[in-house]
Design a protein that fits this description.
By secondary structure, the protein is an alpha+beta fold. The chain has a single domain (10-90), classed as Endonuclease, Chain A. The protein is built from two helices and three strands, in the order ββαβα. It has helices at 43-63, 77-90; strands at residues 10-12, 17-22, 67-72. It has a three-stranded mixed sheet, with helices on both faces. The longest helix has 21 residues, at 43-63. The radius of gyration is 15 Å and the shape is flat.
Length: 91
């Protein structure tokens, strides 16, 4: 999308499905993320900005008519593949 400087992990443009795979560390996974003890003045704000950017990305893509599928790196790859296939077939 013009003006949206983000990179999708998988893109199905004909059916407007976008897949984003988030790393637990950089995207603040509620299950696995642990705040680093080094440089405590930097990391909380950095991770919060990443999470806010993820939400903004989802909103902008959804508003533009894309179906956004977002997964965590720790999720089962077979489950992810099944969900992606289902979404693409439905679209």
């Amino acid at each position: 999308m013009p003006g949206l400087r983000r990179t999708a992990d998988l893109l199905f443009p004909r059916v407007r499905v976008v897949v984003l795979l988030d790393g637990c560390y950089w995207h603040g996974c509620p299950e696995h993320f642990r705040m680093p003890t080094a440089n405590p003045g930097y990391w909380p704000a950095k991770i919060a900005r990443n999470v806010a950017r993820d939400r903004e990305t989802d909103e902008k893509l959804t508003e533009a008519g894309w179906r956004v599928l977002r997964f965590w790196e720790h999720e089962d790859p077979d489950d992810i593949a099944c969900e992606i296939e289902r979404a693409v077939r439905q679209a």
